[in-house]
Inverse folding.
């Protein structure tokens, strides 16, 4: 099913995306919230067969990231051209963050670009702005459909003082291979050890396939990021992460790296309670965890031990200046997200439709 | 919680009869505000024409059938269409109330036995069908009401085209025609209904009590907060140690302890179970499978 807001039925990007799904029924709707935000929806059931919703975003295109989030010395901002992810990683805060598991793609990319440009011009480069696009979705996973990177990356090439991070687990790099590397765009892949990825990162490309994608981009001069986030514990985690690092650094040249980060497993209490309700049978949530400061984490000793051990192993592969600890925990400064409720930007978009049921 | 079952809501007796035969439903002997059928596979209610009647019948059936949430609800009925041939079956991907303009979009997450179409619920039977929608008189009453009792993926509308500009001069199809139209589509209704039941069972399994929960509640006193903790601890135990880890906690014949002691013992037990999330390092994934 392809749901399309009536206002953008003939938008060029809508027509382009519709062309990818010639056999799908197109169902017009007044606002995407009529489909996406209704009560009485099961995220778990919808995840079996999610639909695509094409919509127009009206405001709040770019939002400030929390002060303590991101690359040190930069100001973090994020934007979401898409809501929800085509992958099914059990630890992800997107599990059940929205009532629906359908994917919303906002087709008015140009409005995002206008606001990004205004922010860049307004900042005058101090501190440098770092934009994150993989906050409510995977940045590249739906690239063949949305052409998001193909649109946004050349735009950032015009503003060398600002940075864009494309966060992904995908292998959809064709758009990037078709253009020259843009030095201020970082393509960042997140990883867990391959046995763990098989168990809890459903529908994602294997670690090996992700690494092949990174390797191809490295050959073309792209700057890459590594995000070992979240760190996932099990009895043999140390061996798993050591093996993962061997695998990663055999494929990815250190010289191509922009930054490497690790992040502990952490969900807000309400996000944790939602995900446990969705997947009570998931072993990841059955192990001993601690509720602390509004979040759910590994027990403090275990978390500390993991962070220290994994960081030590990681630093045997990379120079310290590439290492950024805990870049990408769900931003704790963002109260909307940390508390597990829907972010302000989305809530604002959703208001016009209301809950009619 | 009982195994989920199907709840059919239809407008006409002629729509109910073939469903009752196929699904083994018999009319209830006692008198009710609506004609109601019941059997091992579910329930059916004859609402009469109109969205208010459909809404009332849906709520009535919910309560009459035990008031349990998470059942599979299916509105089966006939409708007019300006293009589709008589006998065509379709599943609603959009339902609009013609009077208010409010729309609903039933999430379709199972294999469908027939194409989908938008359904427009009119206040009364229309003489002409201008828009390419299935025109009916009950979906907009049925759908939002049933969504109060189930998640929307389990609430669906199955329509059979009964008349179109070429096929029918009079807009009141005979009972025998209606019955035949439904009968001809019973295989589709059944496969769709079974798929919805599969979803309903998945939802029910999520809400099911973990092993040992009822037994421990019967043997030890727990406060409400402790009951919630007990449920989650037993869920975790079932995941981490599915084979009999509960048994030594409270051996048969042992004196009933305090709830909090049981919770503490469970916490200790859980903390002692080694956490293994994935296949061992070095063992190929196909060897594990």
């Amino acid at each position: 099913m392809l749901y399309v807001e009536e206002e953008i039925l003939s938008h060029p990007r809508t027509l382009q995306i519709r062309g990818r799904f010639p056999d799908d029924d197109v169902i017009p709707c007044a606002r995407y919230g009529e489909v996406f935000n209704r009560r009485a929806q099961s995220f778990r059931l919808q995840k079996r067969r999610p639909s695509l919703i094409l919509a127009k975003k009206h405001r709040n295109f770019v939002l400030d990231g929390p002060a303590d989030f991101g690359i040190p010395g930069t100001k973090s901002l994020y934007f979401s051209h898409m809501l929800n992810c085509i992958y099914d990683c059990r630890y992800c805060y997107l599990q059940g963050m929205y009532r629906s598991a359908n994917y919303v793609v906002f087709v008015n990319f140009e409005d995002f670009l206008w606001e990004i440009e205004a922010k860049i011009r307004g900042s005058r480069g101090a501190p440098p702005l770092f934009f994150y696009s993989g906050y409510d979705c995977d940045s590249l996973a739906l690239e063949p459909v949305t052409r998001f990177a193909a649109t946004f990356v050349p735009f950032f090439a015009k503003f060398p003082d600002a940075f864009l991070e494309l966060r992904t687990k995908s292998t959809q790099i064709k758009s990037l291979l078709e253009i020259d590397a843009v030095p201020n765009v970082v393509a960042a892949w997140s990883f867990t050890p391959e046995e763990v990825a098989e168990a809890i990162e459903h529908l994602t490309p294997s670690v090996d396939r992700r690494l092949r994608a990174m390797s191809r981009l490295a050959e073309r001069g792209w700057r890459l990021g590594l995000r070992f986030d979240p760190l996932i514990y099990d009895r043999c985690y140390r061996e798993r992460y050591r093996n993962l690092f061997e695998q990663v650094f055999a494929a990815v040249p250190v010289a191509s790296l922009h930054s490497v980060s690790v992040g502990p497993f952490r969900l807000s209490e309400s996000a944790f309670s939602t995900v446990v309700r969705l997947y009570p049978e998931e072993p990841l949530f059955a192990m001993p965890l601690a509720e602390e400061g509004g979040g759910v984490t590994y027990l403090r000793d275990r978390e500390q031990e993991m962070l220290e051990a994994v960081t030590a192993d990681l630093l045997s592969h990379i120079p310290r200046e590439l290492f950024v600890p805990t870049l990408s925990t769900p931003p704790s400064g963002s109260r909307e997200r940390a508390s597990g409720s829907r972010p302000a930007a989305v809530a604002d978009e959703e208001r016009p439709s209301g809950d009619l049921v | 919680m009982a195994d989920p079952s199907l709840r059919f809501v239809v407008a006409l007796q002629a729509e109910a009869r073939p469903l009752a035969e196929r699904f083994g439903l018999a009319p209830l002997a006692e008198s009710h505000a609506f004609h109601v059928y019941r059997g091992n596979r579910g329930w059916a209610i004859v609402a009469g024409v109109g969205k208010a009647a459909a809404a009332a019948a849906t709520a009535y059936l919910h309560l009459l059938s035990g008031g349990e949430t998470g059942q599979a609800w299916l509105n089966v009925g006939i409708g007019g269409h300006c293009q589709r041939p008589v006998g065509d079956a379709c599943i609603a991907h959009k339902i609009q109330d013609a009077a208010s303009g409010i729309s609903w979009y039933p999430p379709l997450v199972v294999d469908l036995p027939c194409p989908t179409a938008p359904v427009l619920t009119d206040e009364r039977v229309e003489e002409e069908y201008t828009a390419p929608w299935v025109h009916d008189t009950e979906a907009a009453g049925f759908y939002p009401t049933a969504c109060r009792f189930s998640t929307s993926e389990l609430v669906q509308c199955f329509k059979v085209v009964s008349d179109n500009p070429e096929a029918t001069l009079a807009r009141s199809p005979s009972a025998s025609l209606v019955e035949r139209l439904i009968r001809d589509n019973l295989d589709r209704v059944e496969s769709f209904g079974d798929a919805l039941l599969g979803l309903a069972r998945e939802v029910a399994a999520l809400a099911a009590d973990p092993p040992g929960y009822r037994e421990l509640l019967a043997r030890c006193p727990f406060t409400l907060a402790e009951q919630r903790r007990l449920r989650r601890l037993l869920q975790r135990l079932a995941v981490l140690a599915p084979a009999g880890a509960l048994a030594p906690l409270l051996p048969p014949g042992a004196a009933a302890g305090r709830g909090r002691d049981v919770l503490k013992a469970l916490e200790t037990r859980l903390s002692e179970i080694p956490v293994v999330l994935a296949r061992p390092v070095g063992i190929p994934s196909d060897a594990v499978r």
